[in-house]
Amino acid sequence: MSDNHWLQQTETPFLLIDEARYQRNVDRLFKRVEGLGSSVRPHLKTLRSPEAARYLLRTNDSPATVSTLTEAEGFAKAGYTNLLYAVGIAPQKLARVACLINQGINIHILLDSPEQALAVSEFAQRHNVTFSVFIEVDCDGHRGGLPPRSNALTELATLVEGNGAVLTGLMAHAGESYSCRTEEQIRQAARNECEAIRTAAERVRALGIACPILSVGATPTAHFAEELEGIAEVRAGVFTCFDLVMKNVGVCSTDDIAISVVASVIGYNREKNWVFIDAGWMALSRDRGTAAGPVDYGYGLVCDISGKPLNVCVTTTNQEHGIIALPADSGLTPDDFPVGMRVRILPNHACAAASMHQEYQVLQAGEDAPEVWHRIIGW
Asked: Quick one: fold of 5-14+252-374?
């Protein structure tokens, strides 16, 4: 059995993935969604890593979601062929999409406006290419999409289908579920998400447009949906690693969080009861997603090197410095953090923390050295 000595030797700060927790999180959601008769189209945006994708995509044509075309290109290069680019398409990006189509990649694009649809149609006619399109449906007023009962939805569906594109599906994202504070609120968000997309599909299909795929998803609703009748796929991304935002929402526990930033103690301000670490916002990110939640974790929850929470947080970050301000009632002093001691910081937002690192060290049971996963960089 390995003693994981490398955790004490690898240059800090670095991003650490706990493989056992990661695998457990993946298994949990896949079992749940498949048990409800649907399938998972995992969002690869959190780690953006071909090595991490192996745990999520069973075959090269397993459905996946990406948030940038650089991700799409990177995962296509890694051999994956069924990709939903789940950000509204900008007309100037259609050439890159067409290039992937011409390579045999089954890439789907997202839109919710006639301006986008016309750009798709014009490009398709000029370049003799057919696009696979999803229309975004607004299920909760969170961001984009068209209301399911709107005339704008059916007019857009008619504009898309057969005009240089196939309307492959409808997509909804229950983004407001991140603000839920009870399990029943999340379950209601999941019901609203499914009801909205089913209503939209009924109206589009009444036009004679097949629109075969209904795609819903957010990590909270994916874990609390009670039924998924007629829903072909569920999208979720941060569930693989989880984070403190998801803990605040009630989707996971601290023990489920598979991602952390490892840092070293580098000094103190004893008068203020501060401990300094070598992980600032360049390693942890500026994300303060827990600030409005039931527990404010500052810039991350501090754990010992084994992952046991110490119940203190990184309270301030500079570019390369983190400050742990020890509360008077914590029972801790700077002497409990000798210079050189290593700590793990659980992040507020896994996607933001991961984005600060080009590669990840992966903790695997019984292994004397980490596996290294690499991040796809860019837009």
From this structure: Lyase, Ornithine Decarboxylase; Chain A, domain 1 (2.40.37)
